[in-house]
Design goal:
Residues 1-19 form the signal peptide. Keywords: Signal. The chain has 284 residues and is mostly beta strands. The chain has one helix at 2-13; strands at 26-33, 39-42, 46-51, 54-59, 64-68, 81-88, 91-100, 103-113, 119-124, 136-140, 145-149, 156-161, 167-174, 180-186, 189-194, 206-211, 218-226, 235-241, 248-254, 256-259, 262-266, 274-282. A hairpin with a 2-residue loop joins strand 6 (81-88) and strand 7 (91-100). The two termini are 28 Å apart. 44% of the residues are buried.
Length: 284
Amino acid sequence: MKRILMLASLLAAGMPLGAQNLGSEYRLKRVIPVEGRQGVAADSNFYYVSGSTALYKYDKQGRLAAKNERPFEGLPLAANHIGDIDVWDGEIYAGIETFDDGRGENIQVAVYDANTLKWKRSIDWEPSSGQVEVCGLAVDRDGDMVWMADWVDGRYVYGYNRKTGRYVRKVHLRPVPQWQQGIFMVGGRMLISADDGDADLDEPDNLYVADLRDGKSYATVLPFRSMADFRRPGEIEGLAVDPATDDLLVLANRGARIVLGMPRGFYPGYDGEVHEVYVFEKVK
């Protein structure tokens, strides 16, 4: 009984639960329309979604609970773009930069209060790492690291100490997923979303997985899941695993033609871009 009461109190407070568990098979459960087009994260009570210039908070029925449409206020470096996000221990971690025509500058990890969605602090980027863009990030809950991915040059992911902000190391992904968009850490393994399908040809995007637990300078990347259940091929974005349910969450956009990461008109039948979080339940 004490254990049940403790779990209930953690859920009510939105505190982190135990580590998520990655399954081997997932089935589409529902699709939630959202306002943001970049990333998704989850804690015990809420989904968090990033737009290019905004942060949103939804309850798990898909109702908007809060938003911050001025997320760059107070940042130490100028920025115009938020990528994929993560949430841990009451804080949202966001990969932020100034992005223009396929290039990133002023890269940083911005940390926001998950309750208010207000900026708290930033982790500085280490230019000598070789990273030139940040499409998304993930908190490694087991290793107490923050990893950043690079859409422009996806050969490496870059790890920082979550508490000190110190750059630690980079890991060579082999083979390299094309046009990475989001990453998520589960028990030392990294899930990677890749915008590698051609929407003009109705090709699905894909998820990949890489095991970083051995601490080596490289990691083998393996196929994890084809996202053929999207309502229309478009642009896959961020992903997460819900700590309360083990549901796999994947954000995807459809309707807009994307060139070098930027919308350039719409496909027939669309006059705007549609943003949706796909919720997949774990089968096994």
